[in-house]
Give the backbone structure.
Amino acid sequence: MVPILVVAIAVVALSARHAPAAQVRYFEVPNGAHPHDVAPAPDGTVWYTAQNQGALGILDPKTGKVTHVSLGTGAAPHGVIVGPDRAAWITEGGQNAIARFDPSSKVVKLFPLPREFPNANLNTATFDRKGILWFTGQNGVYGRVDPATGKVEAWKAPKGFGPYGITTTPNGEVWYASLAGDHIAKIDTVSGDALMVPPPKPGVGPRRIWSDSKGLLWVSFWNSGEIGRYDPMNKTWKVWNLPKSKGGCYAVYVDNNDKVWVTDFVANAIHRFDPATETFESFPSDKRGASVRQLLGRPGEVWGAESGVDRLVVVKD
C-alpha cells in the first residue's frame, strides 16, 4: 500500500501532577492469573483475561468476589471487550480462536481462525458499526468475525509481524497499530485491505490505538515513551512526551470526556492527559512492577489490569 503523507509536530510535556490516592482502588485476583486485558461489563462486574490460567475472570467490585471461567484446553486469552450483544468477546491465542462468553447461559463458543493462519498470536478486538468483530494477531494477521453467520476471515498484514491494538472511530472506520511493523493502518471493511500510515518518526513502536469522539486517533508509542495523535482528515500527527519516561508507553484509552489515559511501564503509573490544557495527571501504583497492559472504562471510572502483581486497578474520575 502507498503511505499517506504525514506532517509531524512535537510538543513536550514537562511534568505531571500526582492525583489524590483516594481516587485509586485495587482488587486482588488469583495468584498467577497474570491479568492482561480488562473490560467493565454491562452488569456492573468487570471482566479480565487470566492469561496464565486460560480463563476469563469476573470481578464483582461490590464484594471483591472473583470467578474464573475456563476457556478450554490450552487457552491463553489476551484481549476482552464487550460486544453489542452484551457478551464478552475474547482474543484467545492459545486456541487460535475468537471466544465468546455468554454471561446469561455461561456458555463459551469458539470461532477458530482459518487453517492457513495458524498461531496468529491473537491480540485485540473491536466491533465496527455493523456488528462485525475485527481482530489483530501479532504474528502478522488481522481479520474479522461475523457473529451472525460465524464466518471468520483473515489477511496477512502488509508488513508482517506487529498488529496489536485496534479501534473503531465514531464514523465506523477501523484502524490498528502495528508494534513491530512501526505503523498504523486503516482497514477497508469491505475488501479487507489495509492502508498503512507511517508514524511521525521511525522506530516509535505504535502499540495500542484509540479513537476520541471526533475521530482523532490516539496511539501509544512504546519505544519512544510518547503519545501520538493522528488526524485522518488532515493527515497530520501531533506528539507529546510522557512526563518522565523515554520508553514504555503501553496502553491508551480515551474516556467519555475525551481525556486520554495511558500506562507508563517505566514510571509504574497510569497517566491522564488533558488535550485541552496539554497537561498530565499521574496515578502511580503502590506496588513495584505493576505493568498495566490495557485500559478500558465506563463513565466515571477507568480500569486496568496490573499484570505484574495479579491485581485490577480502578481510577475514579
